[in-house]
Structure formats: structure tokens, C-alpha cells
Specification:
Two copies of one chain form a homodimer.
Chain A: E1 4-6, E2 11-14, H1 22-27, E3 33-38, H2 42-45, H3 48-58, E4 62-66, H4 75-87, E5 92-97, H5 99-111, H6 119-122, E6 134-138, E7 150-155, E8 160-165, E9 173-176, H7 186-206, H8 212-234, H9 239-252, H10 267-279, H11 283-298, H12 303-314, H13 319-333, H14 349-362, H15 371-379
Parallel strand pairs in A: 2-9, 3-4, 3-5, 5-6, 6-9
Antiparallel strand pairs in A: 7-8
Helix pairs in contact in A: 4-5, 7-8, 7-9, 7-11, 8-9, 10-11, 10-14, 11-13, 11-15, 12-13, 14-15
């Protein structure tokens, strides 16, 4: 195992009704005023917004609202949040929504305490040295943002979907109530399944050394997502399935699955970010298109691990059968596996390659993922 | 899944050479003087002690030594540590050793800031509300104490082996360098394997509801311990096996394997504590005697989970075959499975029962584990 440091200070409040105490969790940190961030009006319709407001008010916490955060969240909205945070001197951010709201909130939290342009953090021009504390109620299980250091934001002007990673943006408290995730559409459920599987396989396949114990944890996360997605598609009210899905999503990207791993990279995310940035496809949908294509291209480079995957996840004998089984499973749950399902034509691949190659540079992977290679991979997704 | 709160603030520094930076980790918290606790003189012979002292000195940290902590650590030594901590106004404890040293250090950390008798915390007469920060270099992978809230100490006067559990005694930083665990004897290696398996199965079998995802993580920990113990018995220098063993030990009792679990209890520990308290047997050795006996007694109460264990750990078809396979594996690695191996006679069981029944009350399990039941279980270990 490779040397590592692990320190994940996020407090998880998991289960039914936990959101009712949100004001108390925030007040325990002495916070008196928050920026309350959210996405659609869904949370106003289903009563969550009222619950949150009541809890904040009961704990004497003022709040400034910032709604309308969209999926594949954009930099302009982050700027708006930073302006609001600064203008109102908020002491923390409370994010109520999915990964897009939370990622925007993390960027706002860092940007609010920075004199320069928050995009500096995304392009590596500056390092995050502090951030406002972030609290969240996560209403979609997918990104794992509720227990990690990451945030991904799209710069609309430059068409760059870039990320930050800083321990300063670990949420202070994350509330995961599986019941609040029941209202997620079937479409977004399967996209989320794809996202969690992508988080799981990136390191699993790309590492130059991967400890068995960590690989087994990852296989548990993948198997859990596969099993619970199937349950939830036919029985959306199944609380325990929803809960296990949510916990697998959190575990898949809270750092634990990368401990002791050597040389992992994120090529699927790297390529998918171009689809999201250029076509605004849902992240998970983009990933289920990229993954089988990337796996077919990559398999010969780490065949043993692909065989392990095939056997332990799908009970298949060969590496290729494992890839086929994953693609077939994506088809079965109806998350896309082909660019054509986004009405993207083969003739557009060149422009995707140009964008993805910029990502490859940002990911430090441009040596392996040349434009030719990116084209080969994308052609496998036609 | 049952509602839960999870917050584990311990920072893990894992890997080769990490102990060299111990002074820096402590200095980062502004600490200027520590109580340096350890057990045997082994750490002086193998150079670890010199490394630690050099790092403390390089960081301007004074230290007061408290050596001679024994396994199955005793209350009198904890008192000695508390006196030393108070007399010298130390600001933190640095534990260099295995679980016994660390558990003693946690008790000292809590006792140093308490006006009353530290034993009050063990018998539930008082609650821990604060503790000195604890840092540690863990030289034996077994108890998981390096990333949890627990400490177990024996009161020699009353023959009670009792525990505390408080978030105030989470270590601040735990250093796990698998290389430092190489000098552990084969005996203690197999006792440690037994201990980690015990931590794994207690909740797994006793819970009234156990999430699949958590059960799978536990199975990974058990399978890892079984595989790496066998490797280490024949190849003690195998770093990756040592590292995976160590990480499985940490994961097995850092709280993650109890999340969402309903109604778990610790009957094997409860009974074993009597063996340790009365006969001073090694904790892991006592556990490998108790576990098969307890499993035979308990199996009909949760047969499905025992079948799952049999299948997923040993590839066996029935619950009883799984129990037999575990007992056979303990025999194979040469950790005891019978009381007679401690030269404890059947005629002594009554006195063990008396002691264990007091534990049962302390564990809140006296209703299920009556004296008759305890006798039945112990008789299965003759």
C-alpha cells in the first residue's frame, strides 16, 4: 500500500427526519447568518424548504436565499453567490439540494473569503487557504460531495468544466435523509447509479497498484448500487434500498476508496466533462456513455483487474464479458450508452476531442490521452 | 437502515517512515509538552524510541516518560499516568505501542482533566466531558483503538475489565506504519487476527437489522485478515500484507461497520473480558476460545446471517459448517479454541460465570446472558 494521510472531518447525520434539526447543527458552531442555496423550486413544493426555514428561525439563524442553481452548475451563479455572501456578511453556507447545489456552495464558500476571482482556484492559479463553513442537506445521492473535498463548476464563457479539491471545503455537517431522495426522478436515479459506478471504477482500473481490501470495498459499493437501483426502479418507496444506495454513493467518493492506491486517474470524468460542458448532458448520463467505450479501449492495459471486476460484479469469466455486462446493465436501466442517444453525430467528435484535450491537460493526463486516443475512445461510443 | 451520526475526526498518517514526523504533527496543534507512554522496552531496542525522541526534540516538545504499561492494561498504571500528567502539566499524551498503551493513554487523557476518580467513567458514575489530546504510533494492529472512542482497562482490585466510549478520546493523529508492526510475534499476530474477527462478527451476528452494504464491508475485513494472516505467518516481511492487515484492523472498529445497524451487542467481548481479568490471558486468545462456543450457542437465533457468513467467508453451505470452518482456521493458525489450552478446568467455569455476569450487567445484556446461559456457552469451550 502506498503511504497516505486520511482525515475526513465531515459529520454525517443520516436518516429519517434529520433535516428538522439543521438549525441546531449550524447554531452549535455559533453561526448566526447563512446563505441558503438551492436549485429548483421542488424543495418549496415538497415542504423541505419550510422545514429548513422553521429550523433556522427556531435557532435564531438569519438566512439570505440563493435559488436557481442548475445541474452542471455554472460559474456565473457562483459569482452571484459570492457577491451575496460578501454583501450580507454571511458566516456559513447552507446547501439544500443535490451535488450541483453543494458544489456551487463549496465554491461560494471559498470565493467569499478570497479577494481574487474564484476561478483562479479551478485553473490552479491560486490555492484555497480558507472557506466559510458549509452545511448541507443532500437531496440526490450521486456525487459524494457531501463527504469530500471536491466541487465541479462549468465556466460558461470558456466551456471549461473544472474542479477544485481542498480540505477547506469538507462540509461541516451533511444531512442525508433517504426519504428526501424519494422524489428524484427515475431518470436521475439511473444517472446517479452511473455516476457512483464511475467514481468506483476510475481508480479501480487505472491504479498501478491497488490494495485488495480497497478493491473489495469498491466492489461492495458497485454491487450495492446495482442491486438497490433495480429495487428502486420497481419500488421507489423502499427505504432501506434508498438508504443503502445513498450510503454507497457517499462511500464511493469520500476518499476511503483511494487509500493506499497508487497512480489512479479520472479519465472517464475527464472526457465526460466535455460532454456536459458542450452539450449540457446530465453528468451521469454522459458517464454511462463514456465508461463502456473507455473500458474497451483501456482493458488490455490492466486485464487482470478487469477480469476481477467481471467475476466479482457480474459473475463473468473474462474481462470483455464484464464490460459487456456493465453496458448491458446500463441499457437495462435506461441510462444512455451511445453518443447518438444525445443526438451527437460522429462528425462532432473532433470538437469534443478539442475540449477534452484541454481537460486532459488540466487532469495532467495529456501524455496518455492524446487527441488521437480521445478520438479512438469517443468513436467506440458512437 | 437505522438513523445514525458519524463523525470520526482522527487523522490517519499511514505508511513507511511516518513516525519520523510525529513531533511535527503534535507541534501543529501548539502542544509543547507531552506524556510519552509506552509498554515494554522493545521500542527502545528497535530504535523507535530514539526516532520519536529526536522528532519531539526537533520540534521543541518536552516529554515526560511513562513506560511499563502491560497488556490487559491496569487501572493502577492509569492512576500513575494521571498523576504524572497533572504534576507536569502536560498538554497531550503521546502513546507509542499497541492497543493497551493507547487505551491507557486515553484513560489518562480523560482522567487528567477530571477532579474525581477516573474509574467513575468506566462504571458509568460520571461522563467524560473533556480530555487531553491523544496522539499515537500504533505498533500492533488489533484493537482499532487508533481510530475510535474506546478504551478498555482492568481494575485489578475488583477484577473488572471495563471500558469507556467517548468522542473526547478520539486520537488527534494516529500513525500506522506497517513496518513497525513487523516485530510483533507470531503469537500476537494470530491473537490480533482473532481480535479483529471478533470486532467484525459481534455486530454482524447480533444485530436485529443489518444493512447488506455494511455486512459486505465486514466480510471484506474478515477475508482480508484471514488472507493476510496466512501470508504473514509464512512471510513476515510482506509489507502489503502487513499494511492490509493493519487497515482491516482499523476499519473493523472505527465505527463504519456499525452504521445503520440496529441492536448490535458485544457478547463475545463481554465474556472474554472475564478470562482476561481472571486469568490474564491475551485478549485475542481469549476471544478465539469464546467465539466458536458463542456461535454454536447463538446460531439458531440468526441462522440466515450465519449462512451468509459461511458462504461468503469460507464458501460453505450451512451455518454450522461456517462455524466449524472458523474454529478450524483458528486451530490452523494456532490461536486457542479451548479453555483447556489456558489450563482452565471445567470446575472453574462457575467462577468465570460470576465475573462474566457482572460484565453482562455492565454491557446491558444480563437479561439474555443469565448465569445459566453463560455457563452453557463456556461449557461449549471446554
Amino acid at each position: 500500500m502506498k503511504n497516505f494521510t486520511y482525515h475526513n472531518p465531515t459529520k454525517i447525520e443520516f436518516g429519517k427526519g434529520k433535516e428538522k434539526a439543521v438549525g441546531g447543527y449550524i447554531a452549535a458552531d455559533g453561526v448566526k447568518k447563512v446563505l441558503l442555496t438551492y436549485g429548483s423550486e421542488r424543495i418549496k413544493k415538497d415542504g423541505l424548504f419550510d422545514t429548513v426555514k422553521a429550523s433556522l428561525e427556531a435557532n435564531g439563524i438569519e438566512y439570505i436565499e440563493l435559488g436557481g442553481i442548475i445541474s452542471n452548475p455554472v460559474l456565473s451563479k457562483v459569482y452571484e453567490g459570492i457577491d451575496a455572501a460578501k454583501a450580507h456578511n454571511v458566516e456559513a453556507i447552507l446547501s439544500v439540494g443535490g451535488g450541483s447545489v453543494l458544489d456551487s456552495s463549496k465554491a461560494i464558500a471559498a470565493g467569499a473569503l478570497y479577494a481574487g476571482d474564484v476561478w483562479d482556484f479551478f485553473i490552479g492559479k491560486s490555492m484555497i487557504t480558507k472557506a466559510l463553513p458549509v452545511f448541507d442537506i443532500i437531496t440526490l445521492a450521486a456525487t459524494g460531495s457531501e463527504m469530500n473535498t471536491y466541487a465541479v463548476v462549468t465556466n460558461e464563457a470558456t466551456k471549461q468544466k473544472f474542479s477544485i479539491a481542498s480540505e477547506h471545503v469538507y462540509p461541516r455537517v451533511s444531512i442525508i435523509n433517504p426519504d428526501l431522495q424519494k422524489s428524484v426522478s427515475k431518470e436521475y436515479l439511473v444517472y446517479s447509479a452511473s455516476d457512483v459506478i464511475a467514481h468506483s471504477i476510475e481508480g479501480y482500473f487505472t491504479a498501478s497498484y491497488h490494495p485488495d481490501i480497497i478493491a473489495s470495498y469498491i466492489e461492495t459499493n458497485i454491487a450495492t448500487v446495482i442491486k438497490t437501483t433495480e429495487i428502486l426502479l420497481s419500488d421507489p418507496e423502499n427505504y432501506n434500498a434508498r438508504a443503502e444506495f445513498a450510503w454507497a454513493a457517499t462511500q464511493a467518493l469520500n476518499g476511503t476508496t483511494y487509500l493506499g492506491v497508487e497512480g489512479a486517474s479520472y479519465p472517464n470524468h475527464m472526457i465526460e466533462h466535455s460532454l456536459s460542458a458542450l452539450y449540457n448532458v446530465a453528468h451521469g448520463a454522459g458517464l454511462s456513455v463514456i465508461m463502456p467505450a473507455w473500458m474497451k479501449w483501456y482493458v488490455s492495459r490492466n486485464e487482470k483487474q478487469f477480469e476481477r471486476f467481471a467475476k466479482n460484479i457480474f459473475g463473468k469469466a473474462t474481462a470483455n464479458e464484464g464490460i459487456e455486462a456493465l453496458e448491458a446493465w446500463f441499457d437495462k436501466i435506461k441510462t444512455p450508452t451511445r453518443l447518438s442517444q444525445f443526438v451527437i453525430k460522429a462528425s462532432e467528435i473532433d470538437s469534443i476531442v478539442e475540449n477534452a484535450y484541454e481537460n486532459a491537460k488540466a487532469f495532467g493526463l495529456a501524455e496518455m490521452y492524446t487527441k488521437e486516443v480521445l478520438k479512438d475512445i469517443l468513436n467506440l461510443a458512437v
